Amino acid sequence: MARLTDPVTILKGVGPTKAKQFAALNIDTLEDLICHFPRGYEDRTRMVEIAQLEVDKPACFKAVVMNHPRTSHIRKGLDITRVQVADHSARLNLVFFNQKFTTEQLQYGSEYIFYGTLTGDYMGYNMVSPSFESPESTPITTRRVLPIYPLTAGLSNASVLKAVQQALMLCDPPAEILPPEVLEKYDILPASDAYYAIHAPKTMEEAEKARKRLIFEEFFVFSAGLALMRASRAQKKTPAYENLNLQPFYSSLPFTLTGAQDRAIREIAADLGRGTPMNRLVQGDVGSGKTMVAAAAAYLAIQNGHQAALMAPTEILAEQHYASLSKLLTPLGISVCLLTGSMTVKQKREIRQAIEENQVKLVIGTHALLSESTVFADLGLVIADEQHRFGVGQRSALSAKGQDPHLLVMSATPIPRTLALLLYGDLEVSILDELPPGREPVDTFLVTESYRARINAFIRKQVAEGHQCYVVCPAVEDGEELNLKAAETWAETLQQRVFPDLRIALLHGQMKGAQKEQVMAQFAAHQADVLVATTVIEVGVDVPNATLMVIEDADRFGLSQLHQLRGRVGRGGAKSFCILISQNKNPDTNARLKALCKTTDGFKIAEEDLALRGPGDFFGSRQSGLPVFRVASLNCDLATLKLAQAASVEWIEKMGTADTPESQALRHRIADLFQRSQGTMN
Ligand code: ADP
Ligand code: MG
Q1: Which of 21, 239, 354, 435 is the most exposed place for a label (fewest CB within 10 A)?
Q2: How many other C-beta atoms can be found within 10 angstroms of the C-beta atom of residue 630?
């Protein structure tokens, strides 16, 4: 017997080369291998006679080899092997390309099971490169449901399959962590069956059942982890804030708060006065005014004698926050400072010292604020702006720091309500579902290339009126993918051929931090008319004078992402526009893009996105701030996710948060999942 923690190299046929290929798939141990789940299956169970084979319908059949395979060398790199097979119903010609050695195994007069797809027409049929094996052998490539694995260069499906099967023979699969009553109540396959069934299902139904079980398990673990985090934070004590008077803050605001902002701030004030650490998510569409909510929270923390930290996803955004918040809070006697990586060593040292000596109250920076050697004298509140880069891994790391500051996360990525419950089980949620008054919705149009001249004229018109434009491209350099507008070349084209008299700037993610900031600062200061950019501008720039956003190859982006991009305009008083350019003819894609033209409600768009693409896309995205799910990201249905969540909540309610022997395995898995998600963030 082997152990799950043994390296894959103990397997027969896995040497250093194979091990390296497996490592490229993050597979080092037998457990990793057993948890490398198929991304799909091929149903190869259908057996027919040759005469029953139909074009384009793959099937298995048993046949005798009627002649010696003949291989002709066509040219360098191309060998063709031909062989005829027959059963009592018909004969069939088989053709193999570059499989001389494989086909040499076919013995004249012997019987084999083949699996393949018939091609051709009444002029003549044949079959190209079928799989085959002896009828006496254990079925590997025929007569079965064949798992299809995610692969990497050099590693074939067959070698993954063999390795997984060997691993399952050598050791027991991971232990059951779901409580027996949960298995029973939700009709869930036990772990001992599921791991075998997912890799070697007898039927497609069995494969489905195994997949469902493993998705259920993963979400049960995740959800239980969040519930435990929430419960354990709720037991922590922290001084309840006594001074909850926001009047001075309100009177220094240049505008009246929206009802939604007001509500969120009151919810936050209640949290802060409770005596346990706050754990709140503020979800609000772009432009809904989350910064003011954050400012109010910071104000309260500081009025009660503590420091607050505001973390932004980019330095540019940190600087913008610094500019607007120091303008707002300095008159109220609050010292605000900015701490970013691009400052000089000396500047950073001075600021750190001021933070450590409690001379500054509000510190604004990037996430590095927490990980770097910044020591706070008395950190009472941590605010993370743009939550989707601040995932559960960081959330749990923060609680683990032992300081237990209040936590406020701000998300501009509307997560469908159905998923939000699941994903933020450890957080209270405030929703800003109202835009500040006078904000006109951004008019959005979907057009094809034939509108190019009109689009150019429209850009010119906006600029002539003193406004600025964004042009977003899906790629940075040409050649990344055919026909995609690369930001770099497109900026050059616009400058030289289309708008020689306008000031065109370029911004993309591959530029150095300082360079990016410089470009952004120039655009914000109206030293450029048109900013050609990649999605780096998706989060975190605020240029109210920008009134037009043109998105090239819009079909390449997800709906939520397009909505996010669109949020960069319409931030000032002037009427704003968004033009989506797409040459895509796919009716589904166009329906998707048209939906975006019709609505500006980020939550509705997110629901639509979820319905169209499934939850997998939300989990698959590296920036979602979610853990890296193994099965759940493949292709899962919301119903299973919801059941798993309900089950875990029930279970935690019953078990409590005590560290009992029964909950050990579960806790272990939770730690694993959160750990795994931490490394992939940022
Ligand atoms: P978000 O971060 O939610 O996308 P911001 O906080 O950046 O939105 O606010 C967008 C713009 O709206 C900012 O220019 C801000 O000053 C302004 N703003 C915020 N709240 C209000 C309000 N209640 N009334 C008018 N303008 C507001
Ligand atoms: Mg914001």
Answers
A1: 239
A2: 18
Q: Spell out the domain ranges in the chain.
A: 46-143, 257-432, 443-599
Q: Is residue 391 in contact with ligand 1, taking CB distance under 6 Å?
A: no
Kindly list the averaged pLDDT for each block of 10 residues, start to end, along the chain of length 682: 92 93 92 91 94 94 95 91 95 93 90 95 89 90 92 90 94 90 92 94 93 90 85 84 95 93 97 93 86 96 94 81 92 94 87 93 84 80 75 64 79 74 80 84 94 96 96 74 75 94 91 82 92 78 90 88 87 90 90 88 81 66 60 70 87 78 80 65 32
142 lines ligand 1 (CB under 6 A): no
- Cα–Cα distance, 8 to 30 (Å, whole number): 5
SS3 content of the chain, % helix, strand, coil (to 5): 45, 20, 35
Pocket test for ligand 1, best of 255, 326, 539 (most atoms within 8 A of CB): 255
257-432 CATH fold = Rossmann fold (3.40.50)
Crossing angle (nearest 10°) for helices 392-400 and 204-234: 30
CA 571 – ligand 1 centroid, Å: 8
Three-state DSSP at 446 gives strand
**Residue count of the chain:** 682
Q: Decide: 194 in ligand 1 pocket, CB within 6 A.
A: no
CA of residue 289 to ligand 2 center, whole Å: 7
CATH number of 46-143: 2.40.50.140
Say if strands 47-48 and 59-65 run parallel, antiparallel, or are unpaired: parallel
Looking at ligand 1, which residue's alpha carbon is closest to its atom 25?
Answer: 436
- Say if ligand 1 is within 6 A of residue 560 CB: no
User: CA distances (Å), 604 to each of 105, 429, 463, 563, 575, in order?
Assistant: 59, 18, 32, 11, 22
Beta strand 70-75 with 279-284 is unpaired
Same fold, 46-143 and 257-432: no
DSSP β-ladder status, 78-86 and 70-75: antiparallel
pTM of the model: 0.72
